[in-house]
Specification:
CATH class of the domain at 6-158 and 187-217 and 276-293: Alpha Beta
Strand content: 15-25%
Number of helices: 11
CATH superfamily of the domain at 6-158 and 187-217 and 276-293: NAD(P)-binding Rossmann-like Domain
Number of strands: 13
Structural class: alpha/beta
Length: 314
Amino acid sequence: MLNKKIVITGAAGLVGQNLILLLKELGYTNIVAIDKHSTNTEILRSLHPEIKIILNDLAEEGSWCAELTESDCLVMLHAQITGLTEEPFTRNNLDATKLVLKHATESKIPYIVHISSSVVISVADDWYTRTKREQEKIVEESGIPHCVLRPTLMFGWFDPKHLGWLNRYMNRSMLFPVPGTGKFLRQPLYARDFCRVIERCIATKPQGLAYDVVGQEEIYYIDIIKKIKQLTNAKAAIVKIPFKLFEVLLQIYGLFVKKPPFTAQQLRALVAGDYFKGVDIKKEFLVTPTPLEQALRETYCDPRFNQIVLESTT
């Protein structure tokens, strides 16, 4: 497998950046990375000048189409996660996927690892959730051999949002607001652990299966914040704000900021009460989960990549 051609869409995002690091560490030599975000693609190019990187929008025909030829595996990471309107979710999660699968079929791609999301089995109902559910269905109906991975909230090197943004905010502000009590159960998934799962799927090609990949440790949202604060020696004081007020403040913030790191929709998803029972990744994929505190320490204290932050793609 190490010399086989692996094509990765959405390669310049959080998972893609971590996946390419891991694949190179394991000895993979024939990687093609495709992404439409110029700034993040340049970060990827600076870290990996030896691999083929293509700056293209998957919702449009382009030079990326030819790269699917003679590929052994396609890893579909492209996704619109946040946004203020429905259009980018439809374009990037549905239109792009349909075009990618059209060319994958024509190129006779033998296998796809599709990165879906835990939201497809959640109680949430928003643009992201609806388009990810439909995207998964499109992949399943493509007829191409595949597996589906549904990760929960991830954190790791390069993270421009989620815990990465919370960490940066905490380190530059005197106050850190938390909605309500902050006791919202989370199952954070370390990106490098998830990338190890992806690699095992590339190598073993499980057929037609969907796996819920969940962080192995459960923790309240406010306790994650406290742990990051402790590890990074942040000085910000944690302040609890009534939920409704917090939601209104986010809505007002979204009127003035083009790319808000956290939206009112995401706030509602945070408190939706989801609980996911994931696959045992050690038993299924031979991947030993990294203890949460160690993973947080690697993410926020390792000098190799903890200062490299991707640009938000909202």
